[in-house]
Specification:
GO terms for molecular function: mRNA 3'-UTR AU-rich region binding; NADPH binding; quinone reductase (NADPH) activity; zinc ion binding. This protein is α/β, with parallel strands linked by helices. The chain contains ten helices and 16 strands. It folds into two domains: 148 residues, Medium-chain alcohol dehydrogenases, catalytic domain (Quinone Oxidoreductase, Chain A, domain 1, Alpha-Beta Complex), CATH 3.90.180.10; 143 residues, Rossmann fold (3-Layer(aba) Sandwich), CATH 3.40.50. 29% of the residues lie in helices and 27% in strands. Strands 3, 5, 6, 7, 8, 15 and 16 form a seven-stranded mixed β-sheet that branches. Helix 7 links the parallel strand 12 and strand 13. It is globular.
């Protein structure tokens, strides 16, 4: 038996229940993983509220690190005792132990602790595909990044600094601005008292940025479009404030803007591609260019509290559960 978070209806954090579940032995192509840490990501809120539909009842979470306890037939590149993380596969990471498809497991290198890795698997891989694949940054670019003090944001700050990118990051408070700057964000915009597009214009001599990475959505869409230079790119990589609806005529009027809505699964598959992404991320960590630790830690039974904190946008950095 294993304890796990389950939910039977969509709604607020109160729908999350801690239950005992059967785990069993791994079948062909599977591995059983005992979790050390489970990451809490904003996408988990989308699933909990029904913004992203799931068949119910169901588990929650797609991002965890732990150790392999058993493997099924046909598994060759993962063995018992391996430290692994994952970010793809079925929902259900909010648990002590679970059986997973072995081909989504990412071996963790020596020198990267479980605690550090718990903040990197989804969030660090997100920074990788945004900065290195969706809009490949090579250095010298000026970008606007929303929620720069969040879990992905603090990794993005460091990655931008490592690449030689000028990053303008939005944050909600002066305290978060200091944290983002300490992690490598070149300029910050405190949205509670500054106009985003106006400040971007001041920082770029009226030219605008080449690309905006916007995980906020509805509340920042207009400012994001107004911050772009002619033929700039809006990467809409999240909708924490609500979904985005764009009239394509507006894109023409604001300078022939490009828009993309990427999804991790299309960049992290096949497995060889996922492992290459992880290697680039871990190489930066091992070189000391990216440092990451949880901002907040909760017990598995406190998953609802973790969701309340994340949903309030009061968190800084990553939030993790400890089974």
């Amino acid at each position: 038996m294993s304890q796990a978070i389950r939910f039977y209806e969509t709604g607020g954090p109160e729908v999350l229940r801690l239950e005992n579940v059967e785990v069993g032995e791994p079948g062909p192509g599977q591995a059983r993983v005992r979790h050390a840490y489970v990451a809490v990501n904003f996408i988990d809120i989308y699933f909990r509220t029904g913004q992203y539909p799931l068949a119910l009842p169901n588990g929650l979470g797609s991002d965890a690190v732990g150790v392999v306890e058993a493997v099924g037939d046909g598994v060759s590149d993962i063995k018992v005792g391996d430290r692994v993380g994952y970010l793809l596969g079925p929902q259900g990471a909010y648990s002590e132990v679970r059986v997973m498809p072995a081909d989504v497991l990412i071996p963790l290198p020596d020198g990267v602790t479980d605690r550090t890795a718990s903040t990197l698997i989804m969030k660090g891989m997100t920074a990788q595909y945004l900065f290195r694949q969706v809009y490949p940054l090579n250095g010298g670019e000026t970008i606007l990044y929303h929620a720069a003090a969040g879990g992905v944001g603090l990794i993005a700050c460091q990655w931008a600094r490592a690449l030689g990118v000028t990053m303008i990051g939005t944050v909600s408070t002066d305290e978060k601005a200091e944290v983002a700057k300490a992690h490598g964000c070149t300029h910050t915009i405190v949205t509670s008292r500054e106009n985003i597009a106006k400040r971007v214009a001041e920082l770029t001599d009226g030219q605008g940025v080449e690309v905006v990475f916007d995980s906020v959505g509805k509340d920042t869409l207009e400012a994001s479009l107004d911050s772009l230079r002619v033929r700039g790119t809006l990467v809409s990589n999240g909708t924490s404030s609500g979904p985005v609806h764009i009239d394509t005529r507006v894109l023409a009027g604001k300078g022939s803007i490009w828009v993309t809505r990427p999804a991790m699964v299309h960049y992290a598959t096949p497995r060889s591609h996922m492992l290459a992404m992880a290697k680039e991320l871990f190489d930066l960590v091992l070189a000391g260019k990216i440092k990451s630790e949880p901002g907040r830690t909760y017990a598995l039974a406190e998953a609802a509290e973790a969701h309340r904190a994340l949903g309030s946008r009061k968190t800084v950095g990553s939030t993790v559960l400890v089974p």
